[in-house]
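Q: What does the predicted 3D structure of Carbamoyl phosphate synthase arginine-specific small chain look like?
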Amino acid sequence: MFFRNALFIPRFSRGLASHSGPLAAIPATLHLKTGQSFIGRSFGAPKSIYGETVFSTSITSYTESMTDPSYRGQILVFTTPLIGNYGVPLNQAPIDSQDVGVVLESQRIQCAAVIVADVAEKFSHHTAVESLAAWCRRHDIPGITGVDTRAITRLLRDQGTTLGRIAVGDDVLAPPPQAEEYWDPSKENLVDQISTKEPYQLNSNGSIKIAVLDFGAKANILRSLVRRDAAVTVLPWNYDFNSIRDQFDGLFLTNGPGDPGHCMEAALKLRKTLAEWDRPVFGICMGHQIIGMAAGLDAYRMTFGNRGHNQPVLALASAGSITAGRVYVTSQNHQYALQLQDPFPHGWEPFFINCNDSSVEGIKSTIDSGKKVWGVQFHPESAGGPLDTIEMFTDFISECRSHKESISGRVSTTVAPTRPRVAVGAGA
């Protein structure tokens, strides 16, 4: 009897799902600069926008993707058919040694728009407070549903990331934009738009002092540092770190949107840091590209980039928790990559390579260089599974702590007063 009645529990629980209300029957169209158009319905903010059309193969975490600053200026196409089924949580968290003030990756939606095959009108999750459509309306972000996202993805995969326009309402009746009307976000310094303008601190009582250059940091990067007892000082992307570097035990460079070429100022300052400073440095995504440019590598624009939670990378070298020869499944969001060249710059070696397209996924300083510097194109903080690369944060903090202790040991040995030796067994 119990098992027969239990069959009705899932159906009953689905009936308790929150309803976002029917979507307004407002037409919306995606126009691509290459000439294709896709007609659907609007959800979210009923407004028209321009942007760069990209796709993500992520199956879950649409809220984290949409709040990732690296998606700034982009029209985000989700390949997963149903999006919005678990709603949107309250995006507030404490600021302490365990968290950084937000649940998601930033305080607001960062992408310019979203495109989904089927937006969920009902959502169900114990942390959800609103629907995807309501969330987009509140942040003034337009969306399109009811289009063939498979066809859009195939186009973007074959012809590459493409500039686009979402036309909503009366704008649907207008002809598609002319080629010169499309806005290209890669022409702008998006990092400068999104980076903090003033330095600020997190977990000031932490035992290890880490400086973070903010190119558009995901909150989980900062969260991963403070949870490892780091006192974090977040700096603007072009801050003169060399003027204060000796106050810190390590330097971290974050992810960020757009073309790394706009951040050459930061790369040149980092080059001076790497030449003169002997403490650990770690970079992720844009930060990895900045490290590469500082080392003498070139960055190039990929055809359609890598965006999703399922990119396999092969470790070419061992370091900390990373074992050479092993494949790691990673989360990624980038349009640019470092150029693989032979020979590599002196003192540097490839760390990871992408198993799908052979793009550079990581670089590191060589043992002979005497430096402790790593950069990875993927996102270890995304914690994609039990065998992922999250422990790279632990490796970094451990190296910072070891270096700090070695300095303390040298200082104490130098300044400690000498005392006369006392023979064993001698009286006072």
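A (community wiki): The structure tokens above were generated from the sequence. The domain at 18-187 is CATH 3.50.30.20 (Glucose Oxidase; domain 1). The chain has two domains: 18-187, 191-404.
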